[in-house]
Amino acid sequence: MNIERLELLKSKLQQFEAEYSDTNGSPGFYIDKDSVIDACRVIKNDLGFRSCVDAISVDRFSKKLRFEMIYNLVSIEHNERIFVKVRLDTKSPAMQSLSQVWDSANWYEREAYDLMGINFENHPDLRRMYMPEAYEYHPLRKDFPLMGIPDSIPLPNK
Amino acid sequence: MSQTETGELKSTETAGTNTKSKILQALESKDLNVQFTDALDNEMVLNMGPQHPATHGVLRLLVSLDGETVVNCVPELGYLHRGYEKLAESCSYHEFIPHTDRLDYLSPMANNVGYALAVEKLLHLEIPERGQYIRVIIAELARIQSHLLAMGALVMDIGAVTPFLWAIREREKILDLYDIICGARFTTSYTRIGGVAQDVTDEALNGIKQFLDELTATLDDMRNLVERNKIFIVRCEGIGYLPKERCIELGLTGPLIRACGIERDLRRCEPYLVYDKLDFRVPTYNDSDCLARYYVRVEELVESVKIIRQCLEKIPSGPHNALQSKKVLPKKDRVYTKMEELIHDFMIINFGVNPPVGESYSAIEASKGELGFYFISDGSGHPWRMKIRSPSFSNLQALSEMMNNCMISDTVVIIGSVDPVMGEADK
Amino acid sequence: MGLEDKLSKDGFVTAKIDELIRYCQKNALWPMPMGISCCAIEMMAAAGPRFDISRFGSEVFRFSPRQSDVMIVAGTTTYKMAQVVRKIYDQMPDPKWVIAMGACTSSGGMYRTYSVVQGIDLFLPVDVYVAGCPPRPDNLLKALMTLQDKIASGDRKPFSIN
């Protein structure tokens, strides 16, 4: 990403108090979870990042602000990639669903809901993506054992 | 596969209870509470998969039908969810390489390359030119391998079996070449962090050269057989259309986005390895239907052949692994004889490569689209979090939109043209 | 063939009825390809032109369980998939056999995780286990031949192929 575009990006996101953080060569921005929808509308409509290609859920396992969502955004016209990061609460991680801005965030957020237990408000179709519907746990959290909870999913009888 | 009238179908998880499963609720539109007088007049729910020959693995689709027209379609994933991302957190960076084979199991070499490049970006490691050329060659072989099967399977779903058998025959030759290059025919695990497991021999390079000549001839035969066939064209043309804007909005990558006229190819847009030194074309089509996707794949195959031919000419001699003894595994024969190498080998195997604290994202253009790895490192030998950005997963998201108002027999063609691999989509 | 000689000479053969039935069963095993993941591709290769499973009378891959004799479970079976596999197995008519193809199917393999069943013998009776990740097509053919021997001998104990 060239410097002019980066400065433009920074100045546009100034009003949302975005905090710049570098992701090994690609720019990333920490945005507060209350203003993330407005900021993302600016990013999409004014700056041309029209594709959301991935969403990453992270469990930092810290006392405060344990969870984090990272959205991987791509602008095809400008050939650029940025990351939008949102810090979330420890006790009940929840944020506004970005599928209101990018349609493709739908499945990525369902995946994060399934594996990390993050709640997305105003999501059109918040169901589990991978695990069975009746499953109670969120496997990617750090306090979940790798081998799972015994007998939590039923097997058919032999 | 079972077909019953709306409301009577219950998924296996909730059979016996009165509540409808959530997937069925998602399928039904809210204003469905209408009394039908004619039994044939209402919508029918059809369950395709997870065991269905046309779903390319264990994809499950719930399709609601009006006569033979698809009204709505909800894909259900997770029948092959193996927990890769959780597994990676308890593997060292080297230990995870065999797992990448089984992500997109139609092109294991490309996954190996993508993973190794991602870790190297995290470590700020540059590999020698010979290693880079070897990686380009094997990644392109993987693309040929995958596209051959994608084409064969698409044509077989339409009803022609011969091209599929021809594709399998050509594929066997690539698997034989893998056998010579790395010693395994299917799950290769060939790359290492900082290079490849062993150098390619001249025998392998000559074999590749000979294979490319044979492939061009077979490909011509295959194209003559398929592309002038009226049944094939009628069943593909205009089917599964998705407008350009929606393709961008849904974050599609790979042949799907190139079939709608956007020249988005990471080999060109974010060049990695030595792709910027090679001459190749990025094929695009504007129709954005199944036929365009087929043509994009065929032409990519031709381009891959061109790329490999250039690599075989340009490949320099020299070391294939980076010279960084603390990060790169030493050669096995030196481990057994030299003290220094033994210590490094012990440290790398037992404690890992310990990249600096930080986050990193790196992606390659795999055969299905953008295959990326997002690493969060806490400085130890295991990744704190690894996220796989799998192309099949995001491409599948467009499936229900492509299937709107198509016929039931077109669903198999559309799935074939998306070419999902469930190992990668379900992770 | 000995049978043809005998028939042309005498016009009849004598055999025990259960041996005759086993002889017929073992040479026309129609597989139900339960292709789940990577092993499914090697199963396809076994059906392909080079390895040619039809030499053993098993080229008729039936995707409907009602028409098949042996289920080849090829690939990692997750808890979610286990219900489906069992349901399909229950739909197969007797007599039926199961080949567990690959390490994941036999024992969970390299996936010791929360979602993978650690061996399909937890919910299915398995006749032949095949090692390898994935096994080469030759190994699958060996498993099929072992199954044929097993049917001929009338034994019901599980076998494993290395």
Overall description:
Chain A has 158 residues and is of the alpha/beta class. In chain A, 21% of the residues lie in helices and 27% in strands. Chain A has three helices and seven strands. In chain A, the strands form two sheets. In chain A, strands 1-2-5-4-3 form a five-stranded mixed beta sheet. In chain A, β3 and β4 form a beta hairpin. The radius of gyration of chain A is 17 Å and the shape is elongated. Chain B contains 18 helices and nine strands. Chain B has helices spanning 22-27, 84-89, 97-101, 108-123, 129-158, 162-182, 202-227, 230-236, 244-249, 255-258, 266-269, 290-314, 332-337, 339-351, 391-396, 399-402, 410-418, 422-425; strands spanning 2-5, 44-48, 60-66, 69-76, 191-192, 195-196, 358-365, 370-377, 383-389. The two termini of chain B are 25 Å apart. Chain C is α/β, with parallel strands linked by helices and 162 residues long. Chain C has one domain (31-161): 3-Layer(aba) Sandwich (Rossmann fold), CATH 3.40.50. Chain C has six helices and five strands, in the order ααβαβαβαβαβ. The radius of gyration of chain C is 17 Å and the shape is elongated. Chains in contact: A-B, A-C, B-C. At the A-B interface, β3, β4 and α3 of A face α1, α2, α9, β7 and β8 of B.
Write the layout of secondary structure elements.
The complex is a heterotrimer of chains A (158), B (427) and C (162).
Chain A: H1 3-13, E1 19-23, E2 26-30, H2 36-45, E3 51-59, E4 67-75, E5 80-88, E6 94-96, H3 105-116, E7 119-121
Chain B: E1 2-5, H1 22-27, E2 44-48, E3 60-66, E4 69-76, H2 84-89, H3 97-101, H4 108-123, H5 129-158, H6 162-182, E5 191-192, E6 195-196, H7 202-227, H8 230-236, H9 244-249, H10 255-258, H11 266-269, H12 290-314, H13 332-337, H14 339-351, E7 358-365, E8 370-377, E9 383-389, H15 391-396, H16 399-402, H17 410-418, H18 422-425
Antiparallel strand pairs in B: 1-2, 2-3, 3-4, 5-6, 7-8, 8-9
Helix pairs in contact in B: 4-5, 5-6, 5-12, 5-17, 6-7, 7-12, 12-17
Chain C: H1 2-10, H2 17-26, E1 31-35, H3 38-47, E2 70-74, H4 79-91, E3 97-101, H5 103-107, E4 128-130, H6 137-153, E5 159-161
Parallel strand pairs in C: 1-2, 2-3, 3-4, 4-5
Helix pairs in contact in C: 2-6, 3-6
